[in-house]
Design brief:
Blueprint (H helix, E strand, L loop, with lengths): L1 E2 L9 E7 L23 E2 L3 H6 L6 E5 L12 H15 L8 H24 L4 H12 L11 H37 L11 E4 L3 H10 L6 E4 L6 H9 L2 E3 L8 H4 L7 E4 L4 H14 L4 E6 L2 H14 L5 E5 H13 L4 E7 L2 E9 L11 H4 L5 E8 L36 E7 L1 H9 L10
Parallel strand pairs: 5-6, 5-8, 6-7, 8-9, 9-10
Antiparallel strand pairs: 1-4, 2-3, 2-4, 11-12, 12-14, 13-14
Helix pairs in contact: 3-4, 3-5, 4-5, 6-7
């Protein structure tokens, strides 16, 4: 949880994970110095004195204790299906079938049928339904030739045939256009004109899908834009019921359909750096104050873009992040044989959360929780008993460990001495995890 500057401590706070730079106030500052001890920028895992004194001038990233409540029972499947079907039918754009083109074509067809039926009723004896039925057969070329009937009937059949040749292609074309427009509009769920303070997400690939899933747990209104109907996040967007536009966000007018002018934030998460930058620039033209986060590949390029955008639009929050740079710590830790529970991006840096058995680590074994803390490198967050060696499991996540394992104490006393049969949850930097796993101290970098 991010605590703004000057925010008093909360009872649920467990530890200070980072002291943020001035970038959280949209000050260009030193957002890039995420792991530089003593710098004016972001400080990961600061000491107690620094965390205390800078809480009045800088924001803080806190580890917060969260209580999990029992989820309410899901409604009956049939009721859910009926509700979904009713909502889905209500959203379908039935109005496309009464558009101006469709109405005009079928109006001309109806007028021709009425005229031919009236003339047939005047020249032919019989009931009224027959006077309507025969012209319809002739227009659609479904009737038999009137060779044995009167001359008037033969002439009317020829006239009806020519009317059919002229009108039926228009009827088919109007029906096909209306059907295609119905399918396209059914796939989209455009927001209402009065929508405000919403979040626009562009790109529903792997990253965009995870972001959309996280936003789905909040109360924010989301508008998603994806040009590929088969993208993995399209199904999730429809399941969550968010506004969805299946279009290219770089196409003029698409961002306007997403109501970018009244939106609160913009997340551009496609895999094309140039397109992401173009979309953010186009959004800035419509809404200079929109908060923008864009996905870029190179971390250096992302830092440069972030600084430039903040300089060009000083009144708007702008963030650019390299997904590869954020994923690198987890990948490197996996290559080292460690199972990372999660990676938390902190401005341009990142923190890793992992479980470590105390045995075999002289930096931890025999030291108290306070002594085991290494400033800017790692911090002990929780302590629990180690039963055998910790085995990686796909169910281990940053949200919590498996419930069938012994419980961890997330508020361990600072004087708790770590023993060989303990297991700890650590928050580490990339360099800290490397030091902890290899036992090799990095050489200090000389500054000029």
């Amino acid at each position: 949880m991010v605590r703004p500057a000057g925010t008093p401590p909360h009872a649920t706070d467990l530890a200070t994970l980072a002291v943020l730079s001035g970038a959280h106030l949209d000050d260009p500052g030193n957002e890039d110095s995420a792991e530089t001890p003593g710098a004016d920028g972001t400080q990961l895992l600061p000491d107690t004195a620094t965390a205390y004194h800078r809480q009045f001038t800088h924001g803080r990233l806190m580890l917060e204790e969260v209580t999990h409540h029992r989820l309410p029972e899901a409604p009956d499947r049939r009721l859910r299906y009926r509700s979904w079907l009713r909502d889905r039918l209500g959203r379908l754009p039935w109005k496309v079938f009464v558009s101006r083109e469709v109405t005009a074509v079928f109006g001309v067809l109806g007028a021709a049928v009425v005229t031919l039926a009236a003339v047939t009723a005047l020249v032919e004896d019989g009931p009224l339904w027959r006077s309507v039925y025969l012209p319809l057969l002739d227009i659609f070329t479904m009737g038999d030739p009137a060779t044995e009937e009167s001359t008037a009937r033969q002439v009317l059949q020829l006239v009806a045939g020519f009317v059919g040749l002229a009108i039926l292609p228009l009827v088919v074309a109007a029906t096909m256009n209306a059907t295609l427009a119905f399918r396209a509009a059914s796939a989209n769920h455009a927001p209402e004109p009065g929508l405000r303070d919403h979040i626009v997400v562009v790109g529903l690939g792997k990253i965009g899908t995870r972001v959309l899933a996280q936003l789905g747990t909040t109360d924010h209104t989301v508008v998603a834009i994806e040009r590929d109907p088969q993208a993995r996040g399209v199904a999730l967007a429809r399941e969550l019921g968010v506004h969805l536009l299946l279009a290219d966000a770089a196409t003029p007018g698409v961002l306007d359909l997403a109501r970018i002018g009244t939106s609160r934030s913009l997340l551009v998460l496609t895999h094309e750096d140039g397109q992401n930058l173009d979309i953010v620039m186009a959004a800035r033209e419509s809404n200079p104050r929109v908060r923008a986060v864009m996905r870029l590949y190179g971390d250096d390029f992302a830092a440069t873009v972030s600084r430039t955008m903040r300089a060009c639009y000083p009144e708007a929050l702008t963030r650019s992040r390299s997904v590869s740079a954020l994923a690198a710590p987890s990948f490197a830790a996996a290559m080292m044989g460690r199972h990372v529970l999660g990676v938390m991006p902190v401005e341009r840096g990142s923190l890793l959360f992992t479980v470590v058995d105390v045995a075999g680590h002289p930096e931890l074994e025999g030291h108290s929780v306070h002594e085991a803390f290494k400033e800017h490198e790692w911090r002990v967050l929780a302590v629990g008993p180690a039963i055998g060696r910790h085995s990686a499991s796909s169910t281990d996540t940053l949200d919590g460990l498996r419930t069938d394992r012994p419980a961890f104490d997330w508020r361990p006393p600072q004087g708790w001495v770590l023993r060989a049969d303990d297991r700890v949850v650590l928050a580490t930097t990339r360099r800290g995890l490397d030091m902890l796993m290899t036992g090799v101290q990095p050489h200090p970098v000389e500054r000029r």
